[in-house]
Structure formats: C-alpha cells, structure tokens
C-alpha cells in the first residue's frame, strides 16, 4: 500500500462535488466579465522565479534538473507564466488582455490549516490598462464571485491600500528609508506586537518618532490628511486610490471596500492599489486572498511596458471562509435516475437509460449483475431521485415501475411511453 | 524574455475555448453515466511507478528528490493514483466505484505530432465489477462522448480484443512462450513488417510455423474457430468477449465495435477486454486512445482483489481526429454584450452591465478609458453580438443605443428600461 505525499490531497467525489461547485461559481463570475480562459504549463525554467524573487525562492520550490539538463520548477504561482505569455505574443494580443484560469500550484512549505504544498487558485488578470476601472473591475469580479457563493457584506471585506501612498510617505520623511524593508514591516503590522513593528520600521530607516508619525497617519487612514502631509506624489497616489474606489462603487463593489493603508501585501512586485480579502468576523484570521497592481512586471520580463492588475482566490482559504459562513456547498452526490433491472431486461433498461441521458440526466444502470436489494442500496447511496424498475414480470404487461426515492411512492407506467417526450419525468408526472 | 519548455504548451483564449468545449463534452457524457469527478495530486512517490513498470520507467518520468529527501515523480498516468485511492478507502467506498477526471500528465519523451511532454487526458474508470456490463459501459461512454463531439461511425471505430484470448492461445501451442513478450509482439503487428513481427513472436517462444498459425487465427478473428482451437480457457475468454459485445450493443455502442484480436495494448497490466479507438479513414494513423480491463492492479497495490476497467481519451490525439473530421470546435471568443461609454456615463453603463450579467450574459465594459472607435474595435475583436452605446447626449434624452454587430443596425431605447425583464435583449427586440 502506497501513501500520499504530505501536503498533497486526494479529492473523492463528495468533497470534489463541493469544490467543483465553488470553482464553477468563480469561473462563471469571471466569464460574465469577459475574462477568457487560458491554460498554462505546470513546469517552467527555475531562473524565471530566481530572477523575479531571488535565489532564496528556490528553497520553497519543487525545483530540479530534468532529463535534458534544464533547471525547472513546478510553478509556485501563475503571475510569471502569464507575464511570459503576454511578452511572447505582445503584438498579436489586443488590449486589454483579460485572462482567467483555475489550476494547482506547488510550494514546498510547512503544511498547516488551509495551506498545502499543492494548492488551487483561480487567477484573474487584466493586462494593458492603467485606468482605475481595471483595478475596480478586479474588485467587482471578486465581490460578485463571493456573493454568488452566498457570502454577504457581513462575511467579508476588501482592505484596500496603495503601494505608492506608502512609498511616497516614506520618501516624505527626512530619512534614508529602504522602501522594500519598510513595506515588509507594514505587511507584518498585524502579525507582530507594536514594539517589534516600530523596530522593523526603524530598521528600515525611520527614526522612532518618524515611525510613530507614520503609523498614526497610516492607521487614521484620513486620505486628506495624508495627501496634505506628503506633497504632490502622495496626492497623486491618493487620487488614484480614490478613483479606484469610485469606480468600484459604480461597479457595485463599494460596500465591500474599506481603506486600510497598513495592508501592504508581502510580494515585492506590486506597484499601485493592493487589497486583501478578510473574514469580517475575524474567525478566519489570515487574509483569505489578495490582489493588486503590478505595472512593472511585464517590462522586467522583457516586454513593452504593460500595466497589469489581478487577483487570485485560493480554494483552500476560501473554503475556510465559506465553511465559517455556512455557505460551503453540500458534499454529496446527485443522481437523477437509477434504472434497476430484475431478470433479463437489460435491453429495455438500456433503452430507457439512453433516452433519459438524452435529456441531459445523470442516469446509472446495473453494471455489476446484482440483486434487486443491492441495486436499491446502491441507488440510495448515490442519492438517486427516481428509480425506474424494469422487471421481467412487469414487462410481460408492458410496464415499468417508477419509484420516488424521497417518499417511497411508486406507480407503474407503460414501458414504451417512458420517458416519452418529457426530459425528466418523475413519479409526480404519473400519479 | 523567457522561453517555454519544450513539449509544454501555452493555451491562449481562442484555442482554449475549443479545448474547453471538447473537455466539457467528454465530462458531460461521463456525468450522464454517473461517473463522479475526483481530483488527484500531480506528484506521487516514484516507487509506485517503478514497482508497477520496472526501473526502466524512470527515464520517461519527471522524477526527482524533493526538499525532504523523498523520491517523487510528476504523474505520468492516472491509473496508479486511482488504484492507491481505491486501496486507501477500500472499505468505505461502495461498489461499483465510477470516477472521472481531466488533468495533465507528464512524460519525458520525444515530442512529435499529437504527443507532448505535458498532455491532457480524461480518465474514466469503474472499480468493483467484473461483469461484462462494466466493460460495455466504458465503451458506451466513449461512443457517446465521440458522437457528442459530432463524430459518426464513418469517423471512428473501436477495435476490441481480449488479453486472455491471446494469452490462452499462446498456451494452447506446444511451446514455451513468454506471454509478455508475445503480447508486445502482437501490439507491434501494425507498426513493423511481417517478417519482423513473426520474428518477435518466435523470439517470444513460438516456432515459425506456430507464429504463422497464430497470426492466421488472430487475423481471421473467427471466434468459433478460435474457441475450438484453444480449448476451454480460450472458450471462456471468447465467451466473455461476446458478452461484452452483446452488452455494448444493448448500451448503444455496437455499431462502433469490431473484433480485432491483434489489438493488444502495450501496457502490461491489462487482463481482459482491451480496445483502441482508431480513425476509420486511417488518416490519423496511430491509435486515438485506448482502454480495457485491469483486474489485478488493485490487489498488486495491496488492496482486496477488485476488478477494474477504464478508458483515457487524450486531448491531443482526439484533436487530430476531430480536426480530420471537421468537428473541432471553432477557436474563437464569444461575447454577448459590450457596453460602450462615451463621456461621463460610467455609472449608467455599469448599472446596465451588471443587469445584463445578472441574466448570465458575458458583458464587457471599458476599463481602459478609450475612445469610441477604440472601444468599437475591441468589441469587434471579442465578437460582441450586441453593443450598448451609453453616450452623454443620448442620456440627456434618457436613451441608450442598441447596436447589432452582425448587421450594423441600431436603434435607441429608453435607458431606464434596458435591459428590463429580458435576460438577453438584442436589437431585434426593439426594432
């Protein structure tokens, strides 16, 4: 007997039915906004990740040398791959480019609740627009997807921030600030105590007083005050954030957005608006997912300068939120019909099953040469709504029995006229 | 600029739309038979493949040592994984177990037409039934899937064989035959010349005369003659093959099946009925896909003896057949509406777009702050059926313009009542 690898999961049908319902909901929401499905390789050259994130990333990767001597990695995220794809067909692709895909990614990291080594994300991105409507459409898609899942504004919120507000604020202080370290410090604000947080800011170059002023500005989140403090560059960033929020309100996502400047997102490549989705009740304590603008990445991959913005809900953290809110889909099978054979009636049963499948129904028949009772048990186990009993004796009278599994009621109907013209006839149609 | 790995593919939206349509068709056909979706890891322990296929398999694998020192491989096929999953929950799973999944697999091999290092398959399997109806249901699913794609019995055929007929025939000769080598020789019959084929049979232990007799029997495919020649074991296998074909006929797949005993399938783990799907015109010269019975695998994986039968259409060879037959879906985008803004009309345009999306439509709006002409070009590029023009001047009169993109016809309608109660109103509803 072989064991499964740690951090990897087998999804059996019941659990998969719920996951499929959630993935379909996310993808349907994206499709209605005109995001187009793409599909992408599971392996890429390792250098793509090292160039983007530094040698340190290799420890978190499933990286290896292939039989042809290439250094390759299982893709830990989609963004570098879609950037590569945009660059490869830059001239041919009309802008804005709007892509969606759902697939697994892999990172070698500690396994914990809601975090696995193989994890699934739905990536949704817009390339080629710097306009605030692009950021807003990403927020609106995310809001629609979550409300389609049954979540409400009591369940989730988008904490929206802006990298340039933070960056320009740092520059507005009379200090030599390492912006990257400072942004990382902000990203840790909620995860460490206040002393450690201020210490990280001062490691990044702010004096202790400056760090306190910075934190006061950021937590008050008074955009007028911030614009006034920081000068024209901060003003421009504040203006962009406001434009995005206005567009998001027009697009129907306003009620879910709140300004939260201490939301910084850890990833280095973000450039403008960034946001994270949180459980409003706080019961799921970590960010559920996040997104934002990354206007420099395509150029750094060798392409024409191309603004970009995206979001990538992960299925595992999303399932924690949905389960907390009581909207995770039921983990059970659904079957429209079981066509049960008693005696030598396979030809008639098969004809009925085919006709019912022609109506788009899920229809099972006996493929195990089993008894009436065993077939009925199986039909019950797959939650068949209706069982059609095709028995030798009934057939002598040209009849089959239609049984409603919920009530146990049954009636006989002429075999020849079943299912007839109805797509999905049930007991109720014959009583 | 980074390059893609050899044998891996990027699927851009147009091509992906066609692939998605084909995958949906396969999965819908499987769902109607009550096959239940599962999902499975991309990585497994390498020993699982070595134990099943020998050390030689490692050369064809993306095999490596992970950061934790485990020998792992990218899954080259699904069967060992589903066997592992069946064994892991043997007691809890009610039989028959009927599973379906579509996902990529990986093999390090020579790239050629219709063969890639990353390739997609839809795997459909039944565990727990030795009855001929199980084999027949797999054939019937495959036939339904292909006819749903628009293929007819002029396009494809299932060449059906039986491992035990071949095995018992070898045993019926007075010779010391290595059955595995002999089956492999049969599998090569169509790929090598007659001399080499007979040579391979004689390497496997038949004399030259026996090899010729064997080949005569196999190619004549007269089941009565074969049953008579081989004794009771061959007779039993012939009986099983006939029962499967009878059931397949009842299940509606009869017209696609023909007995072809020289179809042996290369994989060693098949045990009973095996079959391959071929292009009837021969234009696609290789087998499109294949399947069959593998009753011993679960036990060899440490489980209770559990009969099994399955099929795994691959998307790349299937696309060759569909393209040859002219039924590969159109590689193009589909968009129901583009809501075009002229001037400061974003709020009204956004409201209309949301209402249309509420009706399940694919609706794009401007997210790039572009001119009328640029928006119209984009709408044309995504094949929008209807463009709703929300212009400042029209809105002063409380109107928007509805334009049919195919004919170019347009008319004004009251903005407030659009889209109204209709889910998908078009120009034709207002003219």
From TrEMBL, chains A, B:
Superkingdom of origin: Archaea
SUPFAM superfamilies referenced in this protein's UniProt entry, alphabetically: Class II aaRS ABD-related, Class II aaRS and biotin synthetases
Catalytic activity, EC: 6.1.1.21
InterPro entries assigned to the protein according to its UniProt record, in alphabetical order: aa-tRNA-synth_II, aa-tRNA-synth_II/BPL/LPL, Anticodon-bd, Anticodon-bd_dom_sf, His-tRNA-ligase, HisRS-like_core, HisRS/HisZ, HisRS_anticodon
Single GO cellular component term: cytoplasm
Stretches the record annotates as Disordered: 407-431
Ranges of residues in domain Aminoacyl-transfer RNA synthetases class-II family profile: 1-431
Location(s), subcellular: Cytoplasm
Gene Ontology MF, one: ATP binding
GO biological process: histidyl-tRNA aminoacylation
Positions contributing to L-histidine binding: 77-79, 107, 121, 125, 265, 269-270
Catalysed reaction, written as an equation: tRNA(His) + L-histidine + ATP = L-histidyl-tRNA(His) + AMP + diphosphate + H(+)
Record key words, sorted: Aminoacyl-tRNA synthetase, ATP-binding, Cytoplasm, Ligase, Nucleotide-binding, Protein biosynthesis
Record-stated family: Belongs to the class-II aminoacyl-tRNA synthetase family.
PANTHER family: HISTIDINE--TRNA LIGASE, MITOCHONDRIAL-RELATED (PTHR43707:SF1), HISTIDYL-TRNA SYNTHETASE (PTHR43707)
Protein's recorded name: Histidine--tRNA ligase
Organism listed in the record: Halobellus ruber
Gene transcribed to yield this protein: hisS
